[in-house]
Amino acid sequence: MKTSLTPKQAESNRDNAAVNLAARHLCDRPGRHIVVKVIATGLPVWQIESQTEPGKGDTITTERDGWPADTCDCPDHLWRHTRCKHLRAVSLLQGETPAPAPSLADERARRDARSEELEQASKSARKAARREWREEV
Predict the structure, then answer these.
(1) Are residues 94 and 109 in the same domain?
(2) What gap in Å lies between CA 92 and CA 65, rounded to an integer?
(3) Cα 99 to Cα 128: distance, rounded to the nearest angstrom
(4) Domain count for the chain
(5) Overall pTM > 0.70
(6) How do 44-49 and 71-72 pair as beta strands?
(7) What spatial distance separates the first Cα and last Cα of the chain, rounded to whole Å?
(8) What is the pLDDT of residues 11-68, one digit of tens each?
(9) Beta-carbon-side half-sphere exposure of residue 18 (alpha carbons within 13 Å)
(10) Are residues 8 and 21 in the same domain?
(11) Which H or E run contains 59?
């Protein structure tokens, strides 16, 4: 059984996870899932709440905010030396990076879900019409 991802799949997963983090933050601002604080040096530091371990989070700094480098203390960034989902989410929120285009699979899944939704609504409408018709007869 193959368990590893290709580099392209891993990048796509990080992009999707970043979009989800940013969307979660924007949809539930009172939840404070992503917080930016200005520290004593006058530079902002981002905190992103862990989705799996409540009370924990990752700390992010970006060059755009004046830091010497983009950093995150998550294992993905520290061990793989790649732009993790947290750095990507902050970039999205800063408006630095446009949101990635949905993949073909995402579009198909969205279309299939919408088709299922419409089919269920149609069934409900037909059932209601039959009930009404029976009541009239």
Answers:
(1) no
(2) 14
(3) 42
(4) 2
(5) no
(6) unpaired
(7) 61
(8) 888 888 888 888 888 888 777 788 999 998 899 999 999 888 888 999 999 999 999 9
(9) 26
(10) yes
(11) strand 57-61
CA distance 119 to 23: 28
Residue 118: domain span: 102-137
C-alpha span between 116 and 12 (Å, rounded): 26
Spatial contact of 39 and 45, defined as CB atoms under 8 Å apart: yes
Residues 69 and 133 in one domain: no
In this structure, the answer to whether residues 89 and 131 fall within a common structural domain is no
Edge-to-edge strands, sheet with 34-38: 34-38, 44-49, 57-61, 71-72
| Domain match, 85 and 108 both | no
Token pair recorded at residue 112: 């299939």
Backbone φ and ψ of 98, nearest 5° = -70, 150
Q: How far apart are CA 70 and CA 77, in angstroms?
A: 10
Do 46 and 71 sit in the same domain of this protein? yes
